[in-house]
Specification:
By secondary structure, the chain is of the alpha+beta class. It has a single domain, classed as MTH889-like domain (Alpha-Beta Plaits). Helix content is about 20%, strand content about 45%. It has a four-stranded antiparallel beta sheet with strand order 2-3-1-4, covered by helices on one side. The N and C termini lie far apart (about 35 Å).
């Protein structure tokens, strides 16, 4: 099986822990080299966030466990890159 190099998740989380704390929890997972979290929407009790994780061999089960332990839930896996190297998406005329 090929290693996951990048994964993009749509996550619903409570206000606590903050995105700073959650990013720190995720960044220390084995196989992870970087984490980016952006707030997409804020409600009274929750935040919808986009989480992008990159690394040389991301272990999805560990990511899912860390997110769940933070009281959050993965709504969807929006993108996955796997293999020997990252493949960047090419913008087409239709994407503009």
């Amino acid at each position: 099986m090929s290693d996951i190099k990048r994964i993009v998740l749509d996550v619903l989380k409570p206000h606590h822990p903050s995105i700073v704390e959650l990013s720190q929890r995720l960044s220390v997972l084995q196989g992870t080299s970087g984490v980016n979290i952006s707030i997409v929407e804020v409600d009274q009790d929750t935040e919808t966030v986009k989480i992008t994780i990159e690394g040389n061999a991301i272990i999805f089960d560990d990511v899912e466990t860390a997110i769940t332990e933070a009281g959050a839930v993965i709504h969807s896996v929006d993108s996955v890159s796997a293999g020997k190297r990252l493949v960047e998406e090419v913008e087409t005329f239709q994407d503009r």
